[in-house]
Write a structure and sequence with these properties.
The chain is of the alpha/beta class. 44% of the residues lie in helices and 16% in strands. It has one domain: 2-enoyl-CoA Hydratase, Chain A, domain 1, CATH 3.90.226.
């Protein structure tokens, strides 16, 4: 038989295949880490407008829906005020208003921020009641001709289920330290004294609204008081009444903000990172009790609000 000649180099060493697989895995892992780093970097650099996040621009704060929690908006205002990159701010309002206290908290913070940076308010589909309140401190207010605004006033809504409870055999037993402690209870008829007390509070809050709006818009308190009966106005009417400064859309507001800040060329828009809405949290599996909108959890309160369907 012919002699078989072994290939040069001899047989492959044991474990060489394992080493090759290990090296391949390490290379893949390194590539993944590098790509992840690049993605994180791009996320930090790319702004919401699609531009790169270095350089100066106009901060955009969106206030949408019923105002129930002031904290996220206050946080954004403070960040915008302290940021050297943000030279002016546009507050985009598409809200029927909300709770009295949260609205006033945001109003005061806008006043504070206005001392350091120019603020332009852009009114969207609706900026009524508390929505108008929040726009008032801005240096300029722009509205669309068909924007629903006005509704200057205060409202407190509650229900009474006393008759319904009687029909099904339920009754409420309340032990209280004073006669007004359960004022606004849904299980009994409100007394005349209680109505007068609540009306007094409503009148005080209404006066605060009128005075803040008059001072911010440089209008006579008497003139604002004449308009403050809850009626709504279009943006076109609001312009004639001095409640807004001009007609224009969001892009007009951004352009005006950039101009007042001395920005040249295309204006970069800087938005805060958006938080998940309550319904997204619900779909993610969180308890419904933990994600209900706050204004539904605590509806019995004084509100600068325009929601005629409730």
């Amino acid at each position: 038989m012919p002699e078989q000649i072994a290939p040069p180099g001899g047989p492959p060493e044991k474990g060489a295949g394992r080493h090759s697989c290990l090296i391949t895995l390490l290379v893949i892992l390194a590539v993944v880490v590098v790509l992840a780093g690049i993605l994180v970097g791009l996320t930090l650099l790319v702004g919401s407008s699609g531009g790169v996040a270095f350089g100066e621009g106009v901060g955009v704060l969106e206030i949408e829906g019923v105002v129930a929690d002031a904290a996220p908006i206050l946080e954004t205002l403070v960040k915008f005020r302290r940021s050297g990159k943000i030279k002016a701010i546009v507050i985009r309002i598409d809200s029927p208003g909300g709770g009295v206290a949260p609205t006033q908290e945001i109003f005061r913070e806008i006043q504070r921020t206005k001392k350091e940076k120019r603020i332009i308010a852009s009114l969207g589909n609706i900026a009524a009641s508390g929505g108008l309140y929040l726009a008032a401190p801005a240096d300029k207010i722009l509205a669309n001709p068909a924007t629903v605004t006005g509704s200057i006033g205060v409202i407190m809504q509650m229900i009474n289920v006393e008759d319904l409870m009687g029909k099904v055999g339920f009754r409420s037993i309340v032990i209280k330290s004073g006669k007004y402690k359960d004022i606004g209870s849904a299980t009994r008829t409100m007394t005349d004294d209680e109505k007068q007390l609540l009306q007094h509070v409503v009148d005080q809050l209404h006066r605060q609204f009128v005075e803040d709006l008059a001072e911010s818009r440089k209008l006579a308190v008497e003139k604002v008081a004449e308009l403050a009966d809850g009626r709504i106005f279009t943006g076109e009417e609001a312009l004639k009444l001095g409640l807004v400064d001009s007609l224009g859309n969001f892009q007009d507001a951004v352009a005006l903000a950039g101009k007042t800040a001395g920005l040249k060329g295309p204006i970069r828009i800087i938005r805060p990172e958006k938080r998940d809405s309550w319904w997204k949290k619900l779909l993610a599996g969180q308890s419904a009790l933990n994600v209900l909108p706050e204004w539904l959890e605590r509806p019995l309160r004084f509100q600068y609000l325009y929601l005629p369907n409730l």
